Amino acid sequence: MKTTKINIYSLNRKIKIKKEVVKKIVGLVFRGEKYHFKEVNIIIADDSLLKTLNRKFFKKNRPTNVISFNLEDVAEVYLSSDRAENREQLLFFLVHGLLHICGYDHKNRSEEKFMEKKCLKYLTELC
């Protein structure tokens, strides 16, 4: 299997997650979805940064839980630790963001439920 370089940047230390856990989740999701990136950047930030990104790239002037960018060989997942109530919810946001870069979306309630089930499946596998 190809190796993915995983970089983790904590710009907001409100909720801490171990690098090993992040790497394990990235591996689980990419293996499960048969996806590969040369490099993945996970950025744990605050509402302010996610609001700025949401406004700039999606024309929505509000913060959000997660924003993902699939840049072909490189992927970036921005997580708002301000929006997460605890570590588990931040990990849920991470899986959700990874699924977005693998091509999933939730434009309707059915797609949203499907993504939610996938997130829970991967988090259950982690335990």
UniProtKB/TrEMBL annotation:
Record keywords, A-Z: Cytoplasm, Endonuclease, Hydrolase, Metal-binding, Nuclease, Ribosome biogenesis, rRNA processing, Zinc
GO cellular component: cytoplasm
Necessary cofactors: Zn(2+)
E.C. code: 3.1.-.-
Superkingdom field: Bacteria
Entry note: cofactor: Binds 1 zinc ion.
Residues given in the record as Zn(2+) binding sites: 96, 100, 106
A GO MF term: metalloendopeptidase activity
Compartments it resides in: Cytoplasm
Gene Ontology terms: biological process: rRNA processing
Pfam families: YbeY
Family affiliation: Belongs to the endoribonuclease YbeY family.
Function: Single strand-specific metallo-endoribonuclease involved in late-stage 70S ribosome quality control and in maturation of the 3' terminus of the 16S rRNA.
This protein's name: Endoribonuclease YbeY
Gene assigned in the entry: ybeY
